[in-house]
Design goal:
With about 700 residues, this protein is of the alpha/beta class. It has 4 domains: about 10-175 and about 220-290, TIM Barrel (Alpha-Beta Barrel), CATH 3.20.20.380; about 305-375, Elongation Factor Tu (Ef-tu), domain 3 (Beta Barrel), CATH 2.40.30; about 385-475, no CATH class; about 495-705, TIM Barrel (Alpha-Beta Barrel). It contains 16 helices and 34 strands. Strand 17 (about 385-395) and strand 18 form a beta hairpin. Helix 4 (about 105-115) crosses helix 15 and helix 5 crosses helix 14.
């Protein structure tokens, strides 16, 4: 990694780019790398994203500054899309990408077989959170994992000893464990795993628990700001610090990069932090779950909360705010009362530290005033970053034109004739070559003895030179076309029934034991039994459960980490629905590694039937888990906790979602959110998986899920 002359020069600062403007803003501000999406297979389908031309321009710009570009192709890929997906990966690499981010381990394994030179990073959507997931990723050809945001600091250190790690330090947080959120999919018809999340977690809900009966933004997380705790991440061996925000403007991206660049330089970054807070701030920030749950949710305010500049008072009956902040007439404000948003306001006048407020709301003494948008004092972007370059131009009669920079020499095809009149001047040549979109700070010298060259030919020579010069930094890549191996997946009709629940029942061919408390696991008797393991699985969880693992036939894990964990303990592996198997490469690959595997619950019946094979299961009825929460939605009010196992969460439309609480080795309880409608049992060629997690709170409504309608 290139040096920035900082105390922590070896760590990478990675910034988001939802469009070209954001990419350039990030690079100019000092990002070591940017990540972006193409028009297909991007987990941020609603951002502008990049076509072939835009990708080429950005990679060229970045490489000239010594920075890198990563392309995120990190959605779930259906079987009908695999050929298009392989083509997209190839196009990204040939377009100059330094790495490609994927969610699907098995597609990654096939890509490395086809094109070993392609560098692969495993997306956070894959949910890597322990050394077992890291080992599987490394075995399949990935050189880096983007860790789940919930990964504890101690586990981050352990994983970093196995494979290069990338960790989020700033930006929006998913309330659900990444890759395991299906609420948008089942409640709204748009899959977050397919890049089309409608953010139902930002809506209002109420719980059937005392103190939480009123509608609030009960699942809405505050924005992440790790701030100076990045030093702990660096000590844990993290290689890349990642800023989230492909849906945010270039002002935010620039401000975030400047802030973390200042921290990495050993500075306090107070001015940079103020600028970042003004750019976007949801919930006054949280340090995230890696450091333990502290102020994780933003229950009372949705969206940008801005910067606190003062409180409402009254002068001559008019609402005003006394502040030292730099603001202007027309700036937008947000008004909070007892922590809750009551409305907006504008700066009507600003004189000598006194702000005259204009609002349609009735303001009260002591209301909190927060600046959210600037009418005239828009946040400035960092000055464009430029590579100092000495450019020598030689235009002599009888010789081809020549341009030289950094040892690179570019020569024209034809000798130049001497001018009979109006020779091309050195100033004209220099002015022409000063025109470039490349990030260059040019020191131009011109040598000429008076030649003739039409302006059109001069411009063509300039363009050809800069294209060739930029090619030094971004050489043209061309991969030999290769054909993916046809996965071996014999179609069979399944006949077994597996059930997830707390206790084994008659009729269970396979029982998957799902404890309420992993410190007190009841070992089932008789039949084939598996222990259910959640998507977040830590070193502490393993230590707690290790003594009883051998008493089960195997583990049912909601993540691919189960492959390596089962191998360590010599038990069988049942890959859960959380492994998100959606194509033949994934199904055939998991079939090699598991005794049984469950297909993604976002597939239609027809899509699932094409993946039916020996050991394949499809969720055919019962509860529909739509979220895994690795934090307490009741804000860790443990002293007042009623300690119920099941709660009900109701949205603004009256739909009721059961919530199940359980305990692992964490000091914080974990919770699961289930769909507002019960999955009606349907036909399938696969064996049947039945979820019986919340029988006491199961809703009366029924759904066929995605059995009949395919997702975008």
């Amino acid at each position: 990694m290139r040096s920035n002359g900082t105390q922590c020069s070896m760590v990478e600062l990675l910034a988001p780019a939802g469009d070209e403007k954001s990419a350039y803003a990030a690079l100019d501000a000092g990002a070591d790398a940017v990540y972006l999406g193409l028009r297909s297979f991007s987990a941020r389908a609603f951002s502008e994203n990049f076509d072939e031309g835009a990708l080429s321009r950005v990679t060229q710009y970045a490489h000239m500054l010594g920075a890198r570009v990563y392309v995120a192709l990190n959605t779930l890929v259906k079987d009908s899309e695999t050929q298009a997906f392989f083509a997209a990966v190839r196009a990204a690499w040939e377009g100059g990408a330094d790495a490609v981010l994927l969610q699907d381990l098995f597609l990654g394994r096939e890509i490395k077989r086809l094109y070993p030179e392609i560098v692969l990073h495993l997306s956070t959507q894959a949910g890597c959170c322990n050394v077992y997931g890291a080992r599987v990723a490394k075995e399949y050809g990935f050189s880096r994992v983007v860790l789940a945001r919930e990964t504890p600091l101690s586990d981050i250190a352990a994983i970093s000893s196995v494979i290069e790690t990338e960790v989020f330090v700033q930006g929006a947080l998913c309330t659900c464990f990444s890759g395991q959120c299906y609420l948008s999919s089942f409640a709204g018809g748009n899959s977050g795993n397919r890049g089309r999340c409608k953010q139902p977690c930002r809506k209002r809900y109420r719980f059937d628990r005392k103190g939480y009966e009123e509608l609030a933004y009960a699942l809405s997380t505050a924005d992440l700001m790790v701030a100076d705790r990045i030093q702990e991440l660096l000590a844990a061996g993290v290689a890349s610090l990642k800023i989230e925000g492909r849906m945010r403007r270039e002002e935010y991206v620039s401000a975030a990069v400047e802030y973390y660049r200042a921290l990495l330089a050993g500075e306090r970054g107070e001015a940079e932090r103020e600028r970042l807070v003004r750019a976007y701030n949801r919930g006054d920030y949280t340090e995230g779950l890696s450091f333990g749950q502290r102020r994780f949710l933003s229950r009372n305010v949705q969206g940008h909360i801005g910067e606190q500049i003062g409180r409402v008072t009254f002068r001559h009956g008019m609402p005003v705010c006394l502040t030292k902040a730099q603001i202007s007439k027309g700036d937008g404000l947000k008004i909070l009362r007892a922590g809750r948003e009551v409305g907006g306001a504008l700066v009507k006048e600003y004189v000598g530290g006194v702000v005259l407020l204009s609002s349609s709301e009735t303001l009260a003494e002591g209301d909190e005033v927060r600046l959210t948008s600037a009418a005239r004092n828009a946040l400035p972007l960092h000055a464009p970053k430029r590579l100092k370059t000495a450019l020598s131009l030689t235009f002599l009669a009888g010789e081809p034109p020549r341009a030289a920079a950094d040892g690179f020499v570019f020569t024209g095809e034809e000798p130049l004739p001497a001018a009979r009149n109006a020779p091309l001047s050195a100033e004209e040549i220099g002015t022409c070559f000063a025109k470039t979109e490349l990030p260059l700070a040019l020191d131009i010298t011109v040598r000429t003895d008076g030649v003739f060259l039409p302006k059109s030919a001069l411009n063509a020579f300039r363009r050809a030179f800069y294209t060739a010069y930029a090619g030094i930094f971004s050489p043209v890549r061309s991969l030999c076309e290769a054909s993916p191996a046809e996965p071996f997946l014999p179609t069979v009709r399944g006949s077994r029934r597996a059930r997830i629940g707390e206790r084994r029942e008659a009729g269970d061919d396979i029982f998957i034991c799902k404890p309420r408390d992993y410190a007190h696991i009841e070992i089932p008797q008789g039949g084939e039994n598996y222990l259910w393991l959640p998507p977040l699985w830590t070193q502490a969880d393993e230590a707690l459960v290790a003594p009883v693992l051998g008493k089960f036939d195997g583990i049912y894990a909601e993540g691919s980490y189960g492959i390596a964990l089962a191998e360590k303990y010599g038990v069988k592996f049942f890959a859960g629905t959380g492994c998100n198997l959606t194509n033949r490469f994934a199904a055939a690959g998991m079939r090699e590694k598991s005794a049984y595997f469950a297909l993604s619950k976002e597939l239609t019946r027809a899509e699932a039937d094409t993946l039916a094979a020996d050991g394949a299961f499809s969720l055919a009825g019962g509860d529909l888990k739509v979220m895994d929460l690795c934090y307490c939605p009741f804000e860790r009010t443990c002293a007042a906790c009623d300690k119920k196992t099941l709660y009900r969460m109701t949205d603004e439309n009256g739909r009721v979602f059961p919530i199940r609480r359980y305990r692992t080795a964490d000091t914080v309880c974990r919770f699961e959110v289930y769909n507002c409608a019960f999955l009606k049992e349907g036909e399938t060629h696969c064996s049947r998986l039945y979820d019986d997690s919340t029988p006491a709170a199961r809703p009366a409504a029924e759904t066929r899920g995605h059995y009949e309608r395919s997702l975008l």
